[in-house]
Amino acid sequence: MTPAEVALNSPRPMPQPEPDRIRYKGVPSDCVLIERNLQYSFKRHKDDKGGIYWVHFPEKKSNLTARVYPDLHRRNVRVAVFQQDWRNPKDTTKGKLINAWTIDLPMNGHWTEQLSKYAGRAITQSEKQPKCFCEKFLILRQRTRDGRQFFGCSQFPNCTQTATIGDYEVIMKKPYCFMDREPHNNSSKDGSNGNFNNGNYGIQASG
To answer: Distance between terminal CA atoms of the chain?
Structure first.
């Protein structure tokens, strides 16, 4: 038998499964379609009940994340931006949903194109956590009188600067920091009074 010949009963290496078949083993086909239309920075997670969702953690200093949650029963995909829990910023099961930066996409028509568009937008929003004029990060708060969310300085009550959450960006008027100014009309009902790790809310503010 020449060196080029191989006996039919000779051991052969087993063919390797395609990478996607390994990556998506046990993943519903709709979730596979969702993931293939998300930016690569979104990483797949599972909740305690086995539900699949995706999270983007910004590379820059930010306490915000972009998340994608499918509801396959209702044929809907939610794209949202969250403020992470300051006690454990990497915990993807906790955090506060930013209502104005959340959209629910019905899974019909050209929904995959819309998903890619809004997921990219959520990435941009999560990577630009707003800063106060005093260089501290603004954190998510909620008005008591109407439940409306806004961003407020983490140095409150020493700094009373606030920012309105727009559809895409935040809107911040001229500063009325610091203690020599009258407090703003917004009042937080989260009970924190701005005391988040000496104003840094779990992350160090960049200069």
So the answer is: 74
Going from the C-alpha of 149 to that of each of 3, 55, 101, 163, 183, the distances in angstroms are 75, 22, 11, 10, 17
* Peptide linkage before 106 cis (omega within 30 of 0): no
Give the H or E element holding residue 138: strand 138-142
Encode pLDDT of 53-76 as tens digits.
Answer: 999 999 888 889 999 999 999 999
Q: What is the pTM of this model?
A: 0.73
Q: Pick from 81, 85, 78: which is nearest to 127 by CA?
A: 81
Cα–Cα distance for residue pair 170/153, rounded to 1 Å: 13
156-178 pLDDT tens trace: 888 888 888 888 777 777 655 44
Q: Which residues contact 163 (CB under 8 A, 6 or more apart)?
A: 130, 138, 150, 151, 152, 170, 171, 172
